[in-house]
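Posting for a labmate who doesn't have an account.
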Amino acid sequence: MGDLKSLIAQELAQPVDPRVADFAASIAARYKDASRAVLFYGSCLRTTELDGQMLDFYLIVSDYQAAYGKSWLAGANKRLPPNVFPAEHAGLVAKVAVLSEQDFHRLNRIGASAVSVWARFAQPSRLVWQADEAAQAQAVDAIAGAPVTLFDMTFPMMGIDKEYRILDVWKRGFELTYGAELRAERKDRSGSVVDSDVARYERFGAAVVAAIAERAKKRGKNLKIVASRAAVEKRWRQLRRNGKILTLARLAKASATYAGGIDYLAWKINRHAGTDYVIRPWQRKWPILGALVMLPRLIMGGAIK
């Protein structure tokens, strides 16, 4: 996996707008010594548009107790990771997801109960703040699991007796992950993500295939073989079910941790699905009930899937 980790380290180190780095430093400062790394990802990274947008950060902490003290937030983050909080800095706004180093590593692996972390970190990200070199190395190691997991879960879902380009595997993989969450993206979203940086996905795809081959050749290690397409399809059904349940559970948790969370949900849906859903005052007062009323209508109408 050496080449893959090298590519990830190089990508993480690419420069970003100085305002993003300043924002990341301000986030890390709030959690003091518990902060290990801040990662920037998502649509604002792809488009480089910041003003008027919602930036996406992951804050990686040493552990939840160190981050929150004895607060109930530590237990909430451990039982249902991540916690998500709004943040503002120098005229920019963001949402910040908090994970421990242990959970960040685990949720980028194939045993994760949902796709949300490894699906995102199979895509580009930037390490915009780090505590030290050890934190940087741990971030690279954790992220290296994401594209390997994507390919492991995608290869059995490709048709037989047909030749594929490496880009086809990425597109099929993202199509599957988008279907495993309650998302408001366009149907062609998985393809457009890959098409936005074809050279990157070709380069990383070759490294992922090499990493998988290297894993299979290691002596003294058991070779993990997926028994059948049926077994993987069953796993994807579980991931789809888990992903949608977890989305609702996290929304409920966010009502206590994320001021204006239901407004953010509506903004995200309207932005990606082209809808004009307006949150009513009573839904802000009772966000869990408001979301439960809103989501079924949007799902039935095809705004989210």
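Reply:
Got it, the structure tokens are right above this. The beta strands are 35-41, 54-61, 83-89, 92-100, 125-130.
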